[in-house]
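Side project, low priority. Logging it here so it doesn't get lost.
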Amino acid sequence: MICGCAARTRITRVTYPVASGDFGAASGGDPLYERSAVIDLDAIRHNVRRLADAASPAKVMAVVKADAYGHGAVPVARAALEAGASWLGVAHISEALALRAAGIEAPMLAWLHTTESNFGAAVAAGVDIGCSGWELDRIVAAAREQERPARIHLKVDTGLGRNGAPMDAWDHVVGEALEYQDQGLLRVVGIFSHLSVADEPERPETDQQLAAFREVLAVAEDAGVDPEVRHLANTPATLSRPDTHFDLVRVGLGIYGLSPFEGQTSAELGLRPAMTLRTLVSLCKDVPEGQGVSYGLRYHTSGPSTLALIPMGYADGVPRIATGGPVRVAGKTYPVVGRIAMDQMVIDLGNIGPAGAGLLGAEAELFGTGAGGGPTADDWARAAGTNNYEIVTRISPRVPRQFVNEPALSGQERP
C-alpha cells in the first residue's frame, strides 16, 4: 500500500559524477539546475519495504549494479539498507569495491567476471563471488594469496543460457567446490540461478526453471553443501511467484519504482518511481508553417507555431530513436518532434503566441513519477521501442544526480 503522507522534500546535495567532488545545494529554497536526474531516496526506501513485505520471510538483496540503474550506487545502497535490505548485489567486482570504499559493510555479491577480474581484491574486501565453475581455480589462488577463505555462491544455468554452470556439469562443479571447502580455501555460501521470463507470468518456462533449481539444490545438499542462502527470484518473481523466493530475493528494477510487467503500472504494484529527469527550456521561437525541424527535416510545422528547445539529447542518455517521447512543460505534455540530437531536442508548442509566452527557462520534465498524468520512463520506453530498465540506466554521467530526502547528516557529509 502506498503511503498517502506527503513528506517535505529536502535537497541535501547534488553530485556531478564527471566532476571532482560534490557541490552543495544552494541555501534558501530548492535550487534549479540546468539539467538533472532527481533521485528520491524516500521512494527507494518505500519500494524496498514494499518488496520486503512481498518476499517475507525471505530476505532482500538490493541490486545496485550499473550505478544503481543510473540512480547512484552509494546513496541508493544506503537507502536500501536503511529500509531493510540485507544484501547488496552488483555485476562486477569493481562495483562492489567502490561500495566498500564508501564504507558500506553489508554482505554483497558480485557475479559477472572475466579472466582478468580481481578476485584477490574481492576476497580481501569480504565480497562474495558468484561462480559458474571456471572461476574456481582463480578464486582459490586468490584465497591462498590473501590467506583468507573466499565466500562463493555457485551459479547454475537453469534455462536462461547465460552464465552459470550447465546442468550436466553441476555434479562436477559441486564436487570441486566441496574439495576446496574441505581444504579451508572457500565457503559455499549460496546457490543461485536467474529466471528468464518471470515478467511474463503466463509462460511455463518459469515452472521448468524452478523444477530444475530444486533438482540442483537436492544434488548439492546430498553432496554435503549447506548453503546460507538459496536465491532465484528477481523483481517480477518476487511480486508474482512466492514459490521462487527461497531464502533471498534479488530485486533490481522494483527498488527503482518501475514495473516489470507489461500492462501493470508501478502504482498498481505499490511502487514509486525514484528518478525524475528534468531540465529547462533553453529557447523559444515563433516559426512559420512548413518550418523543418532537426537533422533530416523529417518534421515540418503544420502552421505558424512556437518551437521550444530542450537541452538534452543522446549524449545525456536520451535515445536518439525516441522521437515522440513526451516532455511536460507548464503542466502540458508535448511530444518531441524531429530527430533527437546529441545535446538537444525540440517540442512544438503550437500557435501560442510570441516566442513561447514566457516559457523560456520553464522546467521541462522528460519523465518522473507520472503524477497528474506526467510522463514516465515507460512512455519513453514505448517511444524508443525498448524497456524502462534501459531508459533510466542509460542516463549519462554528464547529467548531475540530485538526491532528495537523504538522512540528515551530522558534522560533515559522508564520504
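Brief comment: The longest helix spans residues 205-223.
Revisit when time allows.
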